[in-house]
Specification:
The chain has one domain. It is about 10% helix and about 0% strand. The chain has one helix and no strands.
Length: about 70
């Protein structure tokens, strides 16, 4: 079971994601000014750098197996 990853069906900047800020980050969580590189790596840390932790849909208390 995924613990620190956002479900694949959650689309970045959608209503389910909840992020609508102006700050942009690449899939590695590094700041970028290029809108074409603005993407979410679907990790809790990606929500943290965007200040969007309350909308993170993963289960932080579980370990990832597999």
């Amino acid at each position: 079971m995924a613990s620190v990853y956002c479900p694949a069906q959650t689309q970045y900047r959608s209503a389910a994601c909840g992020y609508a800020g102006v700050a942009m980050f690449d899939v590695d969580g590094k700041p970028t000014s290029d809108p074409n590189k603005d993407a979410c790596g679907k990790r809790y840390s990606d929500c943290q750098c965007r200040g969007n932790q309350t909308n993170y849909p993963g289960l932080l208390g579980l370990r990832r197996y597999g």
